[in-house]
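Lab notebook, bench 4. The sequencing result for the construct came back, and we need a structural model before the next group meeting so we can plan mutations. Quick request posted to the team channel:

Model the 3D structure of this chain.
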Amino acid sequence: MSQPMNPAERRNSDIAKMAAGAIGIVFGDIGTSPLYAFRETFVGPHPLELDKLHILGVVSLIFWSMTLIVSIQYVSILMRADNKGQGGSLALVALLTRSVGRTKYGWLTVLLGVFATALFYGDSMITPAISVLSAVEGLTVVNDRLDPLVIPIALVLLVLLFFIQKRGTAKVGALFAPVMIVYFTVIATLGIIQIVNQPGILMALNPYYAFLFFQTDGMLAFLALGSVVLAVTGSEALYSDMGHFGPGPMRLSWFGFVMPCLLLNYFGQGAMIISLDSAGAAEAIQSPFFFMAQESMRLPLVILATFATFIASQAVISGAFSITHQAIQLGFIPRLTTQHTSEREAGQIYIPAINWALLVAVIILVLTFQNSSNLASAYGIAVTGAMLIDTALMGVLFIAVWKWKLWVAIPVLVVFFIVDGAYFAANLMKVPDGGWFPLLVGGVIFVLLTTWARGRKLMKSRMTEAALPLDVFAKSAHGSATRVAGTAIFMASSNKGVPSALLHNIKHNKVLHERVVVLTVSIDEVPYVEEEDRCSIEELGDGFFRVTLRYGFMEETDVVEAITRQDMCGGPFDMMKTSFFLSRQTLLSADNPGMAIWREKLFAWMMRNAATPMDFFRLPTNRVVELGSQMKI
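Done. Here's the predicted structure in token form:
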């Protein structure tokens, strides 16, 4: 009979399970980088000689980049900067805003975070395309006559990937961790075999060989950084996904398993190329990841790598849904239709508009760039841009939140600005070859996000200016309208003044319900709000109440569930005797507009295409009344 586990053993068991889960969900992006990162450094737009100096230099750069950027900057430092357990650029901005939001530089912090989010969307379009293409291209190593089938197979897999999103990933998600553990174990084993045959590759652990590379071929070494950085793509995703597993299990996964496996594979690729003659090296460098395996094992490796890239792409798509949800809640993106794909996991969501937009972009990328080498030219600039922004936000974090001494913070920041800045500068060289794509996508999305945020701010300002205080209205309405049985809930974007739907209702219908509730949903700059802090009620007399429901930016805004859970406002809510009144504004151009006319028109278009409050707040469809009004901003 087995002994029950004590609390310490149970905690360690839970951490181990979460660490294994993280391997399947979080590390797919960075885990599939060996498929193309080492290769692109030598055969990309700025090819290098296949000699010992350059191979040792590149492997050394990969090792120290992974150590500085992933292990130190993200895993060791930024994972300490959690917003109630959540990570990522938007969560970090929300955390920083509480400290610097009211200062004169607070707006700059928000803009940087928004631009990093915009760049993430560019990255999330390229990752599925380059990952799946690079895996399927392994078929040409098995048999070069299969080359015409690469793009059709990749497109079929990608279309399938996006079509299964609607069904959710709860069922197939259980397979992610075992598949990725097998994948990492296999690539580490392949690397060990090559390192044993050529142990001299371990000299690349010495940063001297990276410096020697720069000393010998300064310009080429600088340009090589544009491909070396592909080895650390996905580092931002580690920080963004921190809320799913927690920093402890993720650090255990990274330092205890993922990082050693990746480095063994990169060192193995370098060892293999060094051990070959010039003709063999020239052939193997076209796909060193697959050439490490014996010929009979290459097809199974292609299949395993395809599964791994499928999982990596799934993680990126889920990340795009999660980031979009955060941005909607924080007021940077219009309300979008969101479907829940799991009854047990609140975080498993599906946003159709984002899913289909990503699919169209991915198909265009595959058909335009044709192979993973061409796509690698577009890849990297979004990642390095986000890394550089994270470094800037890290500076605000050190000084404004953690209160580090300047003599400690500045040297640390200088190191990371030099490293991240060098990678970003090297990737700027890729702009003519495809780097323009993520910058274009990032720029367009940045305009959309800032236009929506600015438009909402102007709308709230105009509504507040013209608002009649609710307590004054409640007193003046007494006796001026017929009271009818039931409850009327008027949704209001601001907790000040009378919502326009209430004014229009009494103006045109000349009735008031016996219980009138003005309800505002407020999104706080924290991921979750404690249940006891969810609802605040202000009784104004004569059956009037002002209610505020508070949610975190990671939570779902289910209004009906929140108000029916508790007895408030003079009694429980009976949905069959409750009506929800919504205001729908039509925008008109003002004489002195608050933003450019083209941005006003863009904001109006975004408003027309946003999901209705009825859908977003999960209001019962047969209990909703919409009243329209016009507004100038």
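The mean pLDDT is 83.
Will bring this to the meeting.
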